[in-house]
Amino acid sequence: MIDISVIVPLFNEDESLPELAEWITRVMKDNNFTYEVIMIDDGSTDNSWSVIQSIAKINTNFKGIKFQRNYGKSAALNEGFKAATGSVVITMDADLQDSPDEIADLYKMIQTDGFDLVSGWKKKRFDNKLTKNLPSKLFNAAARRSSGIKLHDFNCGLKAYNKKVVKSIEVYGEMHRYIPVLAKWAGFRKIGEKVVEHRARKFGVTKFGLERFVNGFLDLGTISFISRFGKRPMHFFGLYGSLCFFIGFLISIVLIINKFIHPLQGLTNSPLFFIALTAMIIGMQLFLAGFIGELIARNGADRNKYLIEQRLGLD
Question: Which parts of 1-104 are beta strand (E)?
């Protein structure tokens, strides 16, 4: 088994790739690491794949996966995790804002200090404070509170993992922001953090806008629900459905008893009648949603299938 697998998801980063490859190669040689670098081209429309092919001809430790179209960072990471063979897996972005010089310390924290996962913390950032830094702080505060994981930067692309972690989790949709949460709920408890260097972007422009933070908060709700009830949706929908139905049923009993006591009073004229009817209907719908959710959870097809146009250096 090799020491390190470096996974680099990318989209339209042809200018930065040669310098990144040289930098990673230099770090690996200086530390005598055995390694592989898996670059995942997420449907780039520039020359990124041609550059990856050129790099792989010079250094066979570099490998590549080319998606037929753009699927997103989570899909790229998931394919990289499946292909990785190193005892330690390190992820980093391709835009040169993550420093490969951090690799040696991250490797030590996994192999020597025994962490399952180490997340980078870009304490000093070079991003726009209004459009990126402030929303990021709000997002991270919400993620810390809901997950109980004391990380400052959940979304940092520079992370290190024990191989067991990446082989035990599934990343899909936009869940790459919550890999530490996925790892925790998979049973990996030793999650650490390291202050890492954040560099100003040298080439191109950022691929992320403000909408990613809106999506991030929505995904936080999704992952919180899935982690607790993904395998047992009836426990959530069935509970609240039964509660609503029971409340509506009790109100109906009260109305029926009241009808016997006051025969001349109209049953359907009471506002409580409509409350009871609504509660019972909602309760039945929630219960059915839970039942259907159970069927889907038990019989759902694989949700992580992507069209891969080419593979380079990978069986």
Answer: 4-10, 35-41, 62-67, 88-91
> What residue segments make up the domains of the chain, in order of their start?
4-229, 233-299
pTM for the predicted model, two decimal places: 0.72
Residues of the chain short of pLDDT 50, as ranges, are 302
For residue 51, what pLDDT is reported? 96
Closest CA to 183 of 204, 162, 199, 201: 162
Phi, psi of 249 (to 5 degrees): -65, -40
3-state secondary structure of 313: coil
The stretches of 89-210 forming alpha helices (DSSP H) are: 103-111, 134-147, 163-166, 179-185
Q: Which fold has domain 4-229?
A: Spore Coat Polysaccharide Biosynthesis Protein SpsA; Chain A (3.90.550)
Which pLDDT score is estimated for 294? Answer: 59
DSSP state of 176: G
The token pair that represents 315 in the structure block: 């069986």
